[in-house]
Amino acid sequence: MNKIFLLLLFVLPLPPPLSSEEKRPDSAGRPSTDAGMVRIGDFYIDKYEYPNRKGSLPKVDISWTQARDLCRAEGKRLCSENEWEKACKGPQSLLYGYGMTFEQGRCNTPFKEGEIWNRGPGATPSGEFARCTNGYGVHDMIGNVWEWTDGWYSREKKWRVVRGGSWFHSVNLARSDVRYGPYLSSDYQLDLIGMRCCRSISKAERKYE
Q1: 154 pairs with which residues across the strands?
Q2: Strand 146-149 vs strand 193-194: parallel, antiparallel, or unpaired?
Q3: How distant, in Å, are the alpha carbons of 66, 82, 136, 177, 206 from that of 41?
Q4: Residue 130, domain extent
Q5: What CATH number is given to the structural domain containing 74?
Q6: Number of domains the chain is built from
Q7: Of the ranges 9-18, 77-86, 89-98, 175-184, which one carries the lowest mean pLDDT score?
Q8: Do the domain assignments include residue 25?
Q9: What are the tens digits of pLDDT across the range 26-68?
């Protein structure tokens, strides 16, 4: 028996090691296809604003419809308002994600308390404000650029909703609980508005939990 085992050991080739590009199983035992996303409860959210790459400028001047289609092309979707707010607040449910009080310079929110708007430097690459993150490790949900969310601003289903504030607007809008949407149609575009994608946990993933 031992001779047979040794013979097989030398004859049968070992499988080659996985390359860095190949998918590896995550802690749940399934292929990990969510690099760059953070799991929060029953959904995933992009770690950075679209295109979800650290060091890249967020894509702006896109409509809600275009944002929806870009997420779908990646097998994702726009985040619901509830998902966006939960992610922004972090596990401690904080008003600014990083804390309960506004901190000048923490995120790309260059305006000062009391200012209505600021004609500052503009959007910055994702992750440039390294401290603009929360307990989940999601970056730039406060300031930089507004982010489209799924759903409607009101029951009339006429206007869409953006969240998070921007480098241009008042500090009062750069909070996790503030929603803005009047006059933002599905085709509205502005160089202050970007996006972030989410994805639901699939049934296949749930069976490993």
Answers
A1: none
A2: parallel
A3: 27, 12, 11, 19, 11
A4: 36-209
A5: 3.90.1580.10
A6: 1
A7: 9-18
A8: no
A9: 433 333 357 899 999 999 999 999 999 999 999 999 999 999 9
